[in-house]
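Suppose a colleague, Dr. K., hands you the sequence of a protein chain of 137 amino acids and asks what its three-dimensional shape might be. Before reaching for any lab equipment, you can write down a predicted structure in C-alpha cell form. Begin with the sequence itself:
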Amino acid sequence: MTTDKPSVLFVCVHNAGRSQMAAGYLRELGAGRIEVRSAGSEPKDVINPVAVEAMAEDGIDITGNTPKILTVDAVKESDVVITMGCGDACPIFPGKRYEDWELDDPAGQGIEAVRPIRDEIKRRVTELVGELLPARA
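The predicted structure, expressed as C-alpha cells, is then:
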C-alpha cells in the first residue's frame, strides 16, 4: 500500500537544478520506500545540463526528468515540502512539514561550482531518509 509511504516534494524556482538533484538522490537513497516529487514555481524547459553532469559523476541519471510546474495538489499530496529559494510561491497547508534549504543556485555555474551544491544536497537527503525511514530493529 502506498498510503503508508512518506512523500516528499522538492520545490525551487526553475525545477531544473537543485530540486531535480534532490529528487534524484531521494529516489536512489529511498529505494522506492518514499514517494518523490519535484516542481518549480517558474519551470524551465529542460534540466540544467551541469546538474545532470554532476549527478552522473555520482552514478545517478536524471536525464529523463523534466521540469514541472508547482501545483496545489502536489503540495497537498506531500508529507514533507522542501523549498530551495522559491520564496512565497509555495502554498502552505496545516499538518505538513516544511523546510527551506538555503543552497546556491547551480544555474549558469560550471561543474566545479555545482559539485559542492550536489554534495550538500546529498548530505541533506541522506539525513532526511534517516528521519523518514527509521532503521528497523
